[in-house]
C-alpha cells in the first residue's frame, strides 16, 4: 500500500484551499441574486409597516415668476381668501361684549378690592356659553397662567378679558401685516412696510395735522426705526413675528388715542412732533439746502461736540452719495446716537470704532478715537487728560473676557456701552463722565433746596 499517495489524496479532499468547481463569476452572480432577494424582501416589509413610504410628501413649492401672471394672481387670491377666513375666526366687538357680560354674570364673590374674580367652575360655565370662537381661551393652562395666588383659587376677570383682547389684537394685526407680505414668506420688505404705514396714517387721529407733502418723510422716519432695530444684518426684510413682538407697533398704534399728553408724544418716535423734530433738525443742518448733509454740516449735530475722527468714520462706513449723507442714512445715525444703551445702536457704533475691522477694540483703537477728544480739549483751552488713565477705566468698567480686547458682546454684557462710546466720540459725553461726581452732588443740593 502506498501510504504516501493515500495521505496526499486525503489532504487534498479536506483542504480549504481546494479549487472550487464553481467558477468565480458564477459565485458573484449567485451572491448578487441572494443580496437582491433579501433587500427586496426587507424593503417590502418596511413598506407594509409604514404606508407613508409609498408617497413622499411635497415640501417645496416654487414661487411663480414675474412673467407668470396667472399663477401670481391665483396665489394672491388664495392668500387673500385664507386671510379673510382667519379674520372671520376672530372675535368681533359684539362677541367680545357678550364675553364680558358672561364673565361679569359668573363672577365669584367676594370682591378682591374693587376687582371682580372668577373661580375655575365659573370659568368652565362661561366656556360652555361663550361660543366656539372663545373656547380656545378657556383652557386650564391659561387659567393657571393668570392665577395670582388668590386664596379662593380665582383669577381676575379684568386680567383675563385683557388677555383675550390682546390675543385678538395680535391676530388682527398679524393678518393686517400679512396682507402686505407680497412674497407670502412671513416677512415684510422695506417697500411693504412703507405701504402699511402710509395706508395707516389716515386711521391715526394724532397725525391728522400732517400735510400730505410730509407723508413720505414721515413714512421713511417710521420705517427706519423698525429696520434699524429689527434688521441688524441689513437683509432688507423683517419677520412679521418680530414686528409683533418688538413693541414698536404699540407705539405706532398708540396714535389712535385722540388725547395724548405732550410728554407722551415727545417720547414716541412715531408721533407727529417727534417726526417733525427729527426732520427739522435735518433741514437746519443742511446749510446749503441741497437735501444732503456734508461732514461739516453733520458736525453741528446736537451740541456740536462729536469728534472729527468719529465723523470721518461715519462717512467712511455709512452709505453716502458723493461724500454726503441722505435723510435715510441720517435717521440711522440719529437712532444710534439717541439709543446708545440698545444692542442695535452699540452694534452700529462698534463697527465705526473698530477702525482696524478686527471684531474687537484694542488699545490702539481706543487711543485712535480718544486722540479726537484730546484735540477738542486743547481747542477749548482745557488740559488734555492722559489716555493711560482713561484706558484703564474703560477696561475696568467693561471687564472683558480677554483683558486686552473688548468685543461687542463685552460692551453689551457690561451695561457700560453708552458710557464707553460717550468717552470716545463726544467731548460733552466725556466731560459728563469726568465730572459725574460733581454733577451728582449738585443734583443732590438742588433736590434739598
Task: Give the key terms.
449 residues; mainly alpha; Recoverin, domain 1; 3 domains; two-stranded antiparallel ribbon; two-stranded antiparallel sheet; cytoplasm
Walkthrough of the structure:
The protein is mainly α and 449 residues long. The protein folds into three domains: 107 residues, Recoverin, domain 1, CATH 1.10.238; 103 residues, Orthogonal Bundle (Recoverin, domain 1); 145 residues, Recoverin, domain 1. Helices cover 61% and strands 2% of the residues. It has 23 helices and four strands. α3 packs antiparallel against α7 and α9 packs across α16. The longest helix has 26 residues. It is extended. Keywords: Calcium, Cytoplasm. One of its GO terms (biological process) is cortical cytoskeleton organization. This is Serine/threonine-protein phosphatase 2A regulatory subunit B'' subunit gamma.
**Uncertain stretches of 5 or more adjacent residues:** 15-19, 440-446
Largest sheet: 2 strands, antiparallel
Topology-level CATH name of the largest domain? Recoverin, domain 1
Q: Helical stretch count? A: 23
Protein name: Serine/threonine-protein phosphatase 2A regulatory subunit B'' subunit gamma
Subcellular location: Cytoplasm
Region (Disordered): 1-28
GO biological process, one term: cortical cytoskeleton organization
Could you give a quick summary of the protein structure above?
The chain is mainly alpha-helical and 449 residues long. It has helices spanning 3-14, 24-49, 69-88, 93-105, 120-130, 140-146, 157-178, 190-200, 215-230, 240-246, 248-253, 262-267, 272-285, 295-298, 308-317, 327-338, 343-353, 363-379, 387-398, 408-414, 417-425, 427-434, 436-448, and strands at 117-118, 155-156, 187-189, 237-239.
